[in-house]
């Protein structure tokens, strides 16, 4: 039992519970910095995330804050695309002996993209009370765009494990008129489908370290509960921006 891994899981879970910042954007770079192969880090993180998302999805389903029509639209594009990303990674590994270089580069790009999305999301949240001049399109007219966005972002998630929450949450805010709770619930429910499909694809190629996953979960589950409790008592605005900056720096270093 490596207590360093449990401590990392505790830290990541605590930060997710406290600030709501996506755990994969913190966890995957940390695992790579510890010397774990990027391919194994991504596969293990996806499998780990699929388990953590089960609890959140169940709770939001009970609260009726999941828009399943929107989940289905995103999943139509994202799930096949994530599987294609895993197959692409394995194809490159077969040709060149390793796909770690590609994963690190795409991961670096995604880690830069996510803080940008967080900033846009924060600005959008401040302006959300203002009425929009643009007329809302009927739901039926929006089907093609979320499927296409799902395909693009799903490929990034399948290759890097990050973005299943933050990137799709931003798309939800701009595409659909939803309450904050419904955005969170729909985002988590879709992420469960996406990371489970990508995690199973990675597992089929032996890219998941189950011992590592269990040790991370042993720390992250109590960490999420602890962070969630303290989130109502601790001002997290500054902390959230510090984490955003750290993610951005990690992405620049990987590039």
Tell me what you see in this structure.
This protein is mainly alpha-helical and 255 residues long. It has ten helices and no strands. The chain has helices at 3-19, 23-33, 38-62, 68-96, 100-127, 144-160, 166-175, 180-204, 210-230, 237-254. Helix 1 runs antiparallel to helix 2. The longest helix has 29 residues, at 68-96. It is globular and about 50 Å long. The two termini are 33 Å apart.
Q: What's the layout of helices and strands?
A:
Elements: H1 3-19, H2 23-33, H3 38-62, H4 68-96, H5 100-127, H6 144-160, H7 166-175, H8 180-204, H9 210-230, H10 237-254
Helix pairs in contact: 1-2, 1-9, 2-3, 3-8, 3-9, 4-6, 4-8, 5-7, 5-10, 6-7, 7-8
């Amino acid at each position: 039992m490596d207590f360093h891994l449990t401590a990392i899981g505790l830290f990541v879970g605590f930060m997710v519970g406290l600030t709501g910042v996506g755990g994969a954007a913190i966890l995957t770079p940390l695992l790579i910095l510890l010397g774990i192969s990027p391919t194994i880090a991504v596969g293990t993180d996806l499998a780990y995330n699929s388990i953590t998302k089960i609890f959140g999805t169940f709770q939001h389903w009970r609260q009726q804050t999941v828009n399943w029509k929107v989940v289905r639209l995103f999943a139509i594009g994202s799930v096949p695309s994530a599987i294609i990303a895993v197959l692409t990674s394995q194809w490159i590994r077969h040709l060149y002996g390793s796909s770690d270089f590609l994963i690190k580069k795409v991961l670096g790009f995604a880690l830069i993209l996510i803080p940008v999305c967080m900033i846009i999301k924060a600005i959008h949240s401040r302006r959300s009370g203002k009425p929009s001049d643009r007329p809302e399109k009927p739901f039926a007219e929006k089907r093609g765009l979320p499927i296409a966005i799902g395909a693009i972002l799903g490929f990034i998630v399948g290759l890097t494990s990050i973005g299943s929450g933050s990137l799709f949450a931003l798309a939800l805010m701009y595409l659909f008129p939803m309450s904050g709770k419904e955005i969170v619930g729909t985002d988590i429910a879709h992420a469960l489908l996406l990371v489970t499909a990508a995690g199973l694809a990675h597992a089929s190629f032996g890219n998941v370290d189950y011992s590592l996953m269990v040790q991370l979960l042993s720390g992250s589950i109590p960490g999420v509960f602890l962070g969630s409790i303290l989130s109502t008592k601790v001002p997290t605005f500054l902390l959230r921006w510090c984490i955003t900056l750290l993610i951005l720096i990690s992405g620049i270093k990987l590039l």
